[in-house]
Design goal:
With 226 residues, this protein is an all-alpha fold.
């Protein structure tokens, strides 16, 4: 019961918060492309995570996680794809912020990793509908995802420092933390269930990313690009 209460309160606050922020950013964006991109990114994050978190909340309050394995598995699959879209949007935000749209090789690499990630997620070997799917494919499908994350960490660290970007100066750290909390869950979560609690600080790292986008509203219009 305590787990159900804690997770439900946390998840409801998180989902309503990021989706509300996303909608507000979209409404206030006007001609500011970065705000609009952050708005869509927040909505994708919240709606995508809802496909996993809503069934999980339902399971905790009813017949348990194992009895709802199918709904949870479908939700995890959808969330895996929307999280890939989330980081693609973050890469597009990096391009827009630092006028880096012309770096075609980098763009092709990021998109290739995203496509590989989604393709791996769609393979039947993932066994999404099982309560405890095999670990091997959980690792394989996350390899391109982690590489994407590592690239974004470096890109934001370098460009934010170069541009003395106060709004995004800690973006690299937020992305780093999101993966630092996520990877142990992928590798150890099925064997050590308590490791799954790391998904909460991982979620807070996402909230931090969205909050940085919210803070863009304080900038003058001309500072959207460095």
């Amino acid at each position: 019961m305590a787990q159900a209460i804690m997770e439900t309160v946390f998840d409801v606050l998180y989902l309503t918060g990021v989706i509300t922020v996303g909608i507000l950013l979209l409404r206030r964006a006007g001609s500011r492309n970065l705000l609009r991109m952050f708005g869509w990114m927040a909505v994708v994050l919240g709606v995508g995570d809802a496909f996993h978190l809503v069934p999980r909340m339902f399971a905790l309050w009813t017949t348990g996680l194992e009895a709802n394995a199918v709904a949870l598995g479908v939700g995890k699959l959808i969330t895996s794809i929307t999280m890939t879209a989330f980081y693609l949007l973050l890469f597009a935000i990096w391009q827009e912020r630092y006028n880096a749209q012309g770096r075609k090789g980098l763009t092709v690499t990021v998109w290739a990793l995203a496509i590989a990630r989604v393709a791996l997620c769609l393979l039947p070997q993932n066994d999404w509908l099982a309560y405890r799917p095999a670990l091997a494919f959980g690792i394989w499908r996350n390899i391109p995802f982690v590489i994407m994350g590592a690239m974004l960490i470096v890109l934001f660290a370098v460009e934010a420092r170069r541009a003395q970007d106060r709004v995004f100066r800690w973006m690299w750290l937020a992305v780093l933390l999101s993966f630092a909390f996520y990877i142990p869950v992928v590798v150890l979560g099925s064997e050590i269930p308590i490791i799954g609690m790391l998904m909460m600080p991982k979620t807070l790292a996402y909230v931090w990313i969205v909050w940085m986008g919210w803070n863009l509203q304080k900038e003058k219009t001309g500072r959207e690009t460095a």
